[in-house]
Amino acid sequence: MAFKQRREYLFLYTVKDANPNGDPLNENHPRYDGDTAQAMASDVRVKRTTRDEWVRSGEIVFVDGEPKSLKTRFEELKKITGKSDAREIMKQCLDVRLFGVTFALGKEAFAWTGPVQFKWGRSLHSASFEFVQGTAAFATERGGADNRQRSFRNEYLVPFALMGVYAIANQYASQYTDAADEDLQRMLDGLWQGTDNLITRSKNEHKSRLLIEITYKEDFNGKIGALDDKVTLLDREGKVMDREKQKALRSLQEVSLDIGALLKSMELKQEQIAGIRVITDGEINIIQEEQLKGISSIEVR
Amino acid sequence: MALVFDIEGDMALFRKPYTTTSMVSYPFPPPTAIAGLIAGIIGINHEASQDAKNARYWEKMREVQVAIALLSPIRWINTAVNLMKYKNSNADMSEHIQVKHQLVKKPRYRIYVQGGEIYKILKQRLEREEFIYTPCLGAAYALADIKYHGEYEPAEAEMDSGFNTIVPGYEGLELDIVRSGAVFSEQIPVQMTVTRCLSHTVQVYYAQPGKAGSPLLYLRNQGALQSNMINGEKVAWFNAW
């Protein structure tokens, strides 16, 4: 059963001494905006995080992240689902139902726009980027003096970034992919837990901090839009930080989140909003927390 | 009557279709992208769920005219995105490909629309700040915000004044480069068939907005180009689809 209510999401997570999303064109330097020094994460990075969590929890996921051919994956899915029709099989995959698919194998070619679209994530402040070097674990097999010489490992990291991600779920696109209300619930859980579970060398430590889900009434066809632009990061005293101060941030304890503009937008749309869900990690300091509690219960995870 | 609305976002990717492995963007949405945007707002499905080639909304675009203005300076993001290489003939996805992307940074455009059977419903959707399918600036992750300005009566344009919009170079058009200062040009797609084949393109000219605002484009002769004043702005229409 396709979901019928439009939703908007704001998801914040922190990255500490890690690489939010490397740019392969730039020696895996964290993606960033050269004008503002904001760290960035592509939509595919965020979706990968979510998919990885689904794979761990046993959901059927089309793009499972393993290096294999489309044909192989399709054959695997035929066995898993016990079906043979490409469209039927695609509808069994949670990621396809939510994020869509462009399928082209043999004579079958179709494209489903995903009901859920993510914007690229951006840090809510200017970040620093550090270049670190380490010693490689092994020497090369070249003989002579070379095999006692280990080379260097280069990498970039961001000491601290509070990343903001915006997404929208469109009820009309869900009619084509059969994404259900429960699927959106799975997405929310996958996003939250998947971020906490990003335990690889370059991604440790990622931590989910705040998730706001706005669910609209069935006949509502608009949006607030760009929720990530409606929150501002201030220092603990509630003051605006200059760029140098933003770059020197190293923990969540140094900042507070101003959600005033977001609350105002939600108030303007209150007639159309069916429900608001808020999840926090209990550590993020929201200036308008009391006001937020007035419109939604806050679930601490 | 003509409808005027702005579209903006964090980034945009209006892909030049003739590039193969790199995603190179036009600096603004070509009319073909505007057609898709209009279809998305009013909710005409492309039917690509049946066949990936489909763009059925073109059936409803007859007699529609659009004009496009740049409102923000054109700045670029150059990056690469790690994608699956799914286009191998043997469908081998094991290989990944780092596709170079050129994205427009923080773009803002003004769109003018007149004519056609979609006009009434588009007006209704814009007035109610509604959209059926999620609007984007070329790529799905480049989500768009739409700001509706209103409906205006197009007035006769003075010959001598400068254009606020991109100007399609129809027959007989002559630029006044000296008066315009600097003029940029692109060959852009204007129309597609219902199975996403390119039916024609046009050479366009435009002035680039800077920090000081939007410069105007001046012509010595506008030839076959149709123009109007809309809400105080001189607009160059693309020919009706």
Automatic annotation (TrEMBL), chain A:
NCBIfam families: cas_Csh2, cas_CT1132. It holds the Pfam family Cas_Cas7. Transmembrane segments: none annotated. InterPro entries: Cas7_Csh2/Csh2, CRISPR-assoc_prot_Cas7/Csh2. It comes from the Bacteria. This is CRISPR-associated protein, Csh2 family. GO terms for biological process: maintenance of CRISPR repeat elements.
